[in-house]
Each structure stands twice: as structure tokens, then as C-alpha cells.
Amino acid sequence: MSDAWEVPTVGVEEELFLVDPGSRRLVAAGPRVVARAGPALGDQVAGEFAQSQVEVRTSPCTTAEELRQELLRLRAGVADAARAEGLRVCASGTPVVGDGEPTPVGDHPRYRAGVRQYRAMMADFSICAFHAHVHLPDRETAVLVGNHLRPWLPLVVAMSANSPFHRGQDTGYASWRSVIRGRFPCLGPPPYAASLGEHERLAAAIADTEAMLDAGMPFWDLRPNPRLPTLEIRSMDVLADVDDTVALTVLLRALVMTARETVLRGDPGPRTSSEVLRAAYWRAARDGWSGAGVDALEGRVLPAPVQAARLADLVRPMLERFGDTARVTAFLHRLTTRGSGDRLQRAVAREAGLTGVVDDVVARTRGERPPQDPVG
Fold this sequence. Notes:
By secondary structure, the protein is α+β, with helices and mostly antiparallel strands.
């Protein structure tokens, strides 16, 4: 690996809900909060599809600690702006409480076009994700690296699951956000592509059917970012704990760079069946970290921790090279002992109900961890 790639930068985008501290319901105050946070955060804060959301975007970061400090600063800035509007910021993949009333859509041509194209499918599309970016300016290589990452995406869904509740109902799923996204023909894992040209032709063909808004900006869970020199991974629920977000991001960096070395040796990646991959996504969304999932590489059902151990072994040389081994090891330990976000939310719900879940996620979003994480 050349010196220029010794420490590739990473970045994160996070979508966050705005909630009323009394009712704990979503509030369509995104434009006001963005305007209030703007003087301090500039273009690192923006609106999102629903007016009950805001988005924060880190600068490119070299180290995990640099990324952590960026996220803490951005979250604090948005939380302060929300508090000035009498609101709180909540990092959950779906709205925990509330009724079925759709929240107003943000004032952006792409959002309005989505409503025209997908109609009632957009009625409950108030969901929050985090996207990880890994610096990878060669778009041809990025597509081939994506082929290697495709089979691991269901595990990433399980590791980041943080949306068991949806508007007052326990869905029975670990990541209901993934289920909402999965009904769209243009969301989810990308198709296998043997080249950048094939990737672009597939996007254009899907856009011609009107199943995708814009071939130049596909919303697949892996893509060479249309505007940035990065490979973007988009399959994750937003996570309440910044340390989890950072650890998963640097784990993905290690996977991207491991795959890049494989691509440079001439391997374009496994042709994992899209049907098996979709099934693996669904199983991961339903059962999350606490269940078994489909190993999309082999088609076998394996516990998520077993798959994660395999992933850690695969990328260990890169984790060690970038100084991230301890951080990722601690993250996997937290998942095993504390559980992922869905398990935490359900544990709180048993003790304090859904309003308590919102309060707990709000505290975690701000970095105010409870002294004892609930388990069970």
C-alpha cells in the first residue's frame, strides 16, 4: 500500500430526530434548528427529508479520536440549538412514539420529487441513518471494493440495529428502519458490477423505470459518492452512542482497505446472489445482533457474533495499521455484553415505557450515559 493510503480519512453523516421533551413526539422544527445552529456549525448541519430531522456532517478525519471529537461537537451544537427551541435531539432509527400522521417534507426539489414518484410509500419515511465515508478517489476501484463489501452488509445492519419501535408499537424487529427502506426497489444492497461502467449502466436502467430518482445519485447502501472522493456505506441505523458510531466507522474503513488490496491483486469480488443478500438483510433486520443471521458469502445461518469474529479476523491487519484494534474490540465486547441499540431500547421500555426510551436515547445522543447500561 502506498504512503498516500497509510491512513485514509473517514467521515460520518448522521440524521437525528427532533422531539418534544413532554410528549416525546417528533416536531417539524428542522428549518428553525438548522438556522439556529448554522452560525456555529456552518454547512456541517442541514435539513433532511422530514422537517422533524436534521443532519450533521463531519469533516474528513484521520484518527478515530478526531472523528469522535467532531461528532461530539456537532451533536452538542445541534442539541444546544434544539434546546433553545424547546426541543431535544434523539438518535433513533425510527420514531419511538407518535401516531401515523406524516411529518412535513423538507423544502428540497429532490424530496418533493420523491413524494411525487413514490406517493404513499413516503408517508412514514421518517427514518434516521448514519453514513460512513472512506476516502477512495478511484471510482472504478470503489465499485469493485463494493463487491467485496456486499456480503458483509447484513452483519452491519445487525450491528447497528437501533429501531425496534415505530410510532408507539414494538415491531418485533431489531431494525424497522431497514424494513421501511427495503420496500423501495432502489434502496438496499447494490447489484454486483464488474466495472464502474456496468455500475452506471445498471443505475441508468433502474432510473429509466422510475424506480430510482436519479442515476447519478443512486441510493444503494454502497456507492462511490457522487460528489466526494469516497466510498459511502449507508446501511446503518443511526446509533445513540458516539463511541459505537466511531468504532463501526473505523471497522468499515479497515474492511474497505482490506478489500482494496484484494482488488489490486486482481479479484473483482464475489458474485453474491442478490436474492440471498436480500434474505440476509431481512433476517438481520428482524433478529439483529442477538439472533443468527445469514452468512451471505456461504449461504449458512450463523450467529451474528460468529460472523463479527470472522470479520474482525479478516481486517485485523488494517485495524492494527490504523491503531483501531482496541476501539473495535471494545465495541464488539459492548455488543456481546450490553447488546445493540434495539436491545437497549427494549430493556428501557420494560422499566420505563416508551417515553423512558426516548429520554434514554436523548441522553445517550448528548453523551450523558446512564451509570449502568440496562441489559436483558
